[in-house]
Design brief:
Pfam families (chains A, B, C, D): TetR_C_26, TetR_N
Organism (chains A, B, C, D): Bhargavaea changchunensis
Strand content of chain A: under 5%
Radius of gyration of chain A: 18 Å
Structural class of chain A: mainly alpha
Number of domains of chain A: 2
Shape of chain A: elongated
Protein name (chains A, B, C, D): TetR family transcriptional regulator
CATH architecture of the largest domain in chain A: Orthogonal Bundle
Largest sheet of chain A: none
Keywords (chains A, B, C, D): DNA-binding
Oligomer: homotetramer
Chain lengths: ~190, ~190, ~190, ~190
DNA sequence: CATGAATGAGTTTTCATTCAT
DNA sequence: AATGAATGAAAACTCATTCAT
């Protein structure tokens, strides 16, 4: 794996373990097994790794959705699979997603967000469009709806770690609630 | 305004301007026009201001909801008013909610989130309970639903500044999309 | 002595001992007996101390000239005293003067040079003007002549350390050569 | 142009642009369009380029003097030509002479100065000796006088860029002042 | 000879925290 | 309670130097 990749992966791990605030570049390079100076060959600062992480996360989420959604399935099944994927990846990137989001908004990289998330939104809005064409759901603006659903699912997935006696059962319940919520929101 | 208030307000501004990471206590005291040492008479650290900010925001949101919701109205009207309130306050505290969320989750203060947001969630879940009792919406877990709706509305409101050619018309459209989404999600 | 003064004095000493290149800010603060961070309260970098040193050197030179020149004396005597003062101070600031000069030209402080040296040039050009008024020397542009003489004397004083078997006798010879050179250059 | 030459030229440029202190070897190689490691095949350090630069400048100056001085001319004419050459080359190497001087004195290379400048001084002191033999000027130590004159001329030429509203007219005036100064200093 | 990515020791720089006033 | 200059530990950052290609 090339050095840049190593840095990004190490950064994800360390940010998760220690939070952004407490993370030192020396922690990242230690985990990445590279020299201190090598970091600066690829990124000018700790925060500038954020967009790269966000990209990875968005790509991972899109990939998870593509993989888990069975297009043979009926729309509600597809929707459940899609939301499941969002929950899975949000869990994988637990804490990091929030930090990345806050880290991005703190920099001049905010505008990159749109670009980073576009493929993910495209994938989901295509699914919605398809369902609509098939006459299975009510008519909406597919792109906007895609963003609402992903926002809702992410927010719901993150809430678990904040509020609840956090266990697998609770996670399933929360996910099921989102499923029901969205299915009702879209049905004809 | 007393010094504590001055600190909180200054902190909101500089967190918004620079992000959490880049904010120094010296920035906060400069904006608050107090001496460096005075900060420590009120807060032990930068991040410990976060719960105070969260409290302000949550209280403001609850108050906005209480003020704007007319209980004489039918449920869809009340819902629209409630979501409108969330949009208004998220706009007021633009970016801050994300930062607060990240700031809290970066520390031991995470557990305070539950406590801080409880009154707000109670207010909204009471509304939902009432609608359910009146048989106007389908049956759900009102508390969980309340959190989903608020999460959805906040996420949608924040997205505006991130993604879109941000203008008043766009904001109205986004808000209307959330209204429709939630109304369909809850209707019988 | 206040901290800023302490830094300037320490910097002069350390620059002389080690040269600019090898001087660390930690050397300066050690010699100044202040904390590392205190340096940055007064100067943003090592090089930014340069103009302050140049100021001290120019002021010291002007003072030395004022003190050593006896206005009762005939002009050649005054001139010898003046050149002696330049030699003395250049010796005092041995090496540093060159470094300061090179250090200044490397920064954006070059334009300050004019201002820093102005009082010194004024003092010397006043002397020259007076001699001219008394009809003791030929007519020249006093200000320009002042700069030529100081440049010549400094250059000659610095050459000693570079070229010659450097000893007191050699210094006296060199100084005497400058005296003769300038006296002949100015006589009627 | 071979690599060694490329390095020397690039070094002159970046030393002039950034000063010695701020110049990195990476700046030099970038300007020279060679690889980082290649530098070390020719020079062991940044400062070790200095003697090479000094040599170039001294050789250039000697050559300029030889070329411009017409030995058929009377001594004042020759002197004017010689000083003109010093001004021309100091202009060509603007700022560099100071930097070289500081750069050499900052290292063990100081002693090389004598050797590097010897041919230049020899040329000028030969001229002075000749004038003396012809009985055209007063008796002095020709070698010492040569160094005084060159030091004076260089200092005067450098001053132009530092102090004055720098233009061609100003340069001519300054040069003329030096001519007059030296002619008076040497005449019988 | 030439390259340039990688290194890591050495410095600079930051900034939360203290404490005498 | 309030101040803000001073501190120094800790972190960021630099850049000369190496070495496998």
């Amino acid at each position: 794996m090339d050095k840049r990749e190593r840095i990004i992966h190490a950064a994800i791990e360390v940010f998760r373990e220690n939070g952004i605030e407490k993370t030192k570049i020396s922690d990242i390079v230690k985990k990445a097994q590279i020299a201190q100076g090598t970091f600066y060959l690829y990124f000018p600062s700790k925060l500038s790794v954020m967009p790269a992480i966000a990209e990875k996360m968005a790509a991972r989420m899109e990939e998870a959705i593509r993989q888990s959604v069975n297009t043979e399935n009926i729309w509600t099944g597809q929707l459940r699979e899609m939301i499941g994927a969002v929950f899975t990846v949000t869990d994988e990137y637990r804490d990091v997603s929030t930090l990345v989001y806050a880290g991005l908004s703190a920099t001049e990289h905010v505008r990159e967000w749109e670009e980073i998330y576009r493929p993910l939104y495209m994938t989901v809005s295509s699914m919605i469009e398809e369902w609509e064409l098939q006459g299975e759901i009510r008519e909406t603006d597919p792109h906007r709806t895609a963003r609402l659903i992903i926002g809702l699912a992410e927010s719901a997935a993150e809430q678990i770690y904040l509020f609840d006696s956090f266990d697998a059962a609770e996670e399933r319940k929360q996910q099921e609630a989102v499923n029901e919520f969205v299915i009702h929101a879209l049905r004809k």
